[in-house]
Each structure stands twice: as C-alpha cells, then as structure tokens.
Amino acid sequence: MSSISTRLPAVAGVVVTLLAGVLFFGQDRMLPVIFPEEEHAFPYGPLAAGVGQSFVAPAPYLSRVTVTIDASGIPTSGFPLNLRIRDDHGEVIAEFRRLVDRLGVSAQAISFSPIADSKGRLFEVEIQPAEGAEGDIYLPMRTGSGVAGESFREQEGRLNDEWSVNFRLDQTVRPLTFTRGILAADTLTGVGLLATLALLTVALTSALRSAGRVLGFRIGQVTGGLFAAGLMLAMGWAAYALYPVA
Length: 246
Hints:
The protein is an alpha+beta fold.
C-alpha cells in the first residue's frame, strides 16, 4: 500500500477534528435558567398602566425573559403589549411591542443580545398595554420569592416583595461556557464528566486502531486519537445543539 494511502486516515482525522471543533465550539444555544411556575395564586389586573418585575439574574449571558399573561375579552385584531428590559442602572436594554392574538394564558418573550456579566445584576421586565389596546390583560401571580431580588412594581408604583409574575429566564451560551457552569456549580460532577469523555476517547482510539488493522490501514496512536477526538466532538456537538430543552 502506498505511503499516500497510509496517510489518508491521518489527514481525514485532522479534517474531521477541525470541522467538528468549529461546529461544536461555535454553536450558540439558548438554555433555560429559570422556568415559570405552572400554578398561580391569583390574577392581577386588568392592566391599565405599566407594571414591573425585578429579579437578580442567577447566571451570565442572560438573553431572554418570558412572562405569562392572561388575556380576556380582547378583539380579534389582538392586544398590543409593550415589553421592556431595564438593567441595574435603569437603562432600557431592549423594548418590543408584542401583539397578543388569543384569549387565555400565553407566554410573551422579549429577547436581546446576551449580557455576559448578567450574573448577580438586578434587572426589571416592564409590562405595559400599548396605545390602542382594547380588552383586559391580567397577570397570573404567585406568592413568595423564588429568585433573589424579586420585587413586583404595581400599577400605582408601589413595590411588593410578596408577589411575583410568572416568568422564565434564558441564557445564550456556548459549550465552553456551559462546561464552566457545570464545573462551577458542581466541580465533582464536572470533573467526572471530563474523565468519562477522556476514557471514551481512549477506548474509541483503541477500537479504531483495531478496525484499521482488520481493514489493512495503518492507524497510529496519534491518528487514532485524532479520529476519536473528532468523533467525540461531533457527537458532543450533536447532543448539545439538537437535544430539546422544554
């Protein structure tokens, strides 16, 4: 067998590794930080003015806030709703006008560019009927504080630390950010995960070298390692990018 043929596995391994690495490490994923509560204690409203829900973000790269609203008696043309996100300086980060187009409970989201240093910072989501709104909008409320810094700003401007809007927070992260989060939250689990990946790579390297001998290809330790690393990266990318998170 020619030297070019014996080098083909090494070249392919490098290409696969580089391609998988670019796909894997460049993949953005929006993951939930806090899910909304399913049950509520009482409805607040109808809204005639803006209200606000403040919270301290528990994670970095905050990129979306979703609030639950309950529409009643709105026209078929829909109910225009303003959503704003303010930071700890009171500055508006993002502002969107949403059209609530159905009766009953629905989730309304406001997305913005990921805030890298959001962890530990105070934010507020403002909910306000837009100009021309007809019908009633209520907020399903819960009692008790599940998130640090929670405070509900009523229509009259009063702050209430005992009530909270049902809301969900999402962050946009990449694999390395996600891995750092696991290590920070549970170091033992993070180290165990990395050790498992290393053992799987070694085992896959051995299996590839054995398969190469059977097929008549000379696959060295480095070549087999490249193949195995590329395959592990590809599988990790697929799991990270495609696994659904409700």
